[in-house]
From TrEMBL:
Pfam families: ELFV_dehydrog, ELFV_dehydrog_N
Gene Ontology biological-process entries: amino acid metabolic process
Species this chain originates from: Mycobacterium kyorinense
Binding-site residues, NAD(+): 183-188
Family label: Belongs to the Glu/Leu/Phe/Val dehydrogenases family.
Domain Glutamate/phenylalanine/leucine/valine/L-tryptophan dehydrogenase C-terminal residues, every copy: 149-354
One MF term in the entry's GO annotations: nucleotide binding
Protein name per UniProt: Phenylalanine dehydrogenase
Length: 354
């Protein structure tokens, strides 16, 4: 996609900055503030081009708008991306601190139009650093007054999504099902434990072999990263990166259902059409992975306690059943159905203070 195409975006705001000293480029994209101030995490990654970083931030911001709307949370959608000059693990601590400080300055200039939080390659400790410069930060560590990591609750929500989807797909309970988890990070690792406790047979894959050590001890089957899309399983759970299912992958997968934490699992609309034609039930990511948003926004904006966060997270399965009903009634993909439900719910919600 050309830079012109990337900038011809229907979101509300794009902010970019490049810092020659650290080599980092910064992008903030606010997709919508219709339901409230925009919120979405900070992703740190290497990108082949600045246009690629802008495109990713825009798509991720759009997914946050849908996630907030379908979840009934009074926030809009935004996202920020820090395009790194080297892999995150190779960036020295002082340079990383400086990168975070610059990012925080950019966020602060928006004066609350955009609130950040943790995402791929950023955690609560990083949120604490951002908070030294700006107040518009979710997910600080608990001893700094924040809600801490969102990963545990995201995993709980994906687990609820998995149970509802398995049942709707005619697979019954998770007991005895084969579940392939791609990415054993903060969310995927916890999801693996929950699925194993429910009696599932785990197949796991990660590009970081250190993450697989406990899985080996646990007796999980290890799948090579490039064999994921050709390995048969009952449920495929992408919990690593987005865009893992394009048309070719959708045509190849041997699974009954897809339920994962990754944002923007489908590379394009066509992939969703193919999954539908092939009878593979896809749980739209922005519904299934909303547990993190319930945790952060629920605790830090709405003042929810543990029980209230859990009640909302447990309802993710019910929301998916509504999505599947719309998909069947309208003969459309589950992704299109979830967008309809998000629009319907947004039409009935009030912005904070509204
Ligand atoms: P993480 O960075 O802790 O874990 C990701 C894991 O995926 C790492 O172990 C990494 O080595 C692995 N990985 C990367 N590329 C891979 C590949 N091609 N094949 C197999 N493994 C690969 O990230 P986290 O927090 O667990 O998030 C996972 C996904 O869920 C991300 O896409 C994130 O945007 C999404 N998500 C996370 C939420 C949260 O609360 N942490 C909330 C909603 C979505
Ligand atoms: N990055 C996570 C997500 O995609 C958690 C998050 C939610 C961060 C809301 C900020 C705001 O859902």
């Amino acid at each position: 996609m050309s830079l012109d195409d990337v900038l011809r975006w229907d979101g509300e705001l794009t902010v970019t900055r490049h810092d020659p000293e650290t080599g980092a480029s910064f992008v903030i994209r606010v997709d919508s503030t219709r339901l409230g101030q925009a919120a979405g995490g900070t992703r740190a990654a290497q990108y082949p081009s600045l246009a690629g970083a802008l495109e990713d931030a825009g798509k991720l911001a759009g997914a946050m708008t849908l996630k907030m709307a379908v979840s009934g949370l009074p926030m809009g959608g935004g996202k920020s991306v820090i395009a790194l000059p080297a892999p995150r693990k190779d960036i020295a601590p002082e340079r990383w601190q400086r990168i975070l400080q610059l990012h925080a300055e950019n966020i602060d200039r928006l004066n609350g139009t955009y609130w950040t939080g943790p995402d791929v390659n950023t955690d609560s400790a990083d949120m604490d650093v951002l908070n030294e410069t700006t107040e518009f930060v979710f997910g600080r560590s608990a001893d700094r007054g924040g809600a801490g990591s969102s990963a545990v609750n995201t995993a709980l929500g994906v687990f609820e999504a998995m149970k509802a989807t398995a049942s709707h797909a005619g697979l019954g309970s998770l007991d005895g099902l084969s579940i392939l988890i791609q990415g054993l990070g903060a969310v995927g690792g916890r999801l693996a434990t929950l699925a194993a406790e429910a009696g599932a047979r785990l197949l796991v894959s990660d590009t970081d072999f250190q993450r697989l050590s406990w899985a080996r001890e646990f007796g999980c089957t290890i799948v090579e990263p490039d064999a994921v899309s050709t390995t048969p399983c009952d449920i495929f759970a992408p919990c690593a990166v987005g865009g893992v299912i394009d048309s070719a992958t959708a045509a190849r997968l041997t699974t009954s259902a897809i339920v994962g934490a990754a944002n923007n699992i489908l590379a394009d609309e066509r992939a969703g059409d193919i999954l539908r034609q092939r009878g593979i039930l896809y749980a739209p990511d922005f519904v299934a992975n909303a547990g993190g948003a319930f945790h952060l926004v629920g605790r830090e904006v709405l003042g929810w306690d543990d029980d209230t966060v859990a009640q909302h997270t447990n309802r993710i399965g019910d929301t998916l059943i509504e999505v599947y009903a719309i998909s069947e009634a309208e003969d459309i993909t589950t992704d299109a159905a979830a967008r309809i439900l998000a629009r319907r719910r947004a039409a009935h919600s009030q912005p904070v203070g509204g």
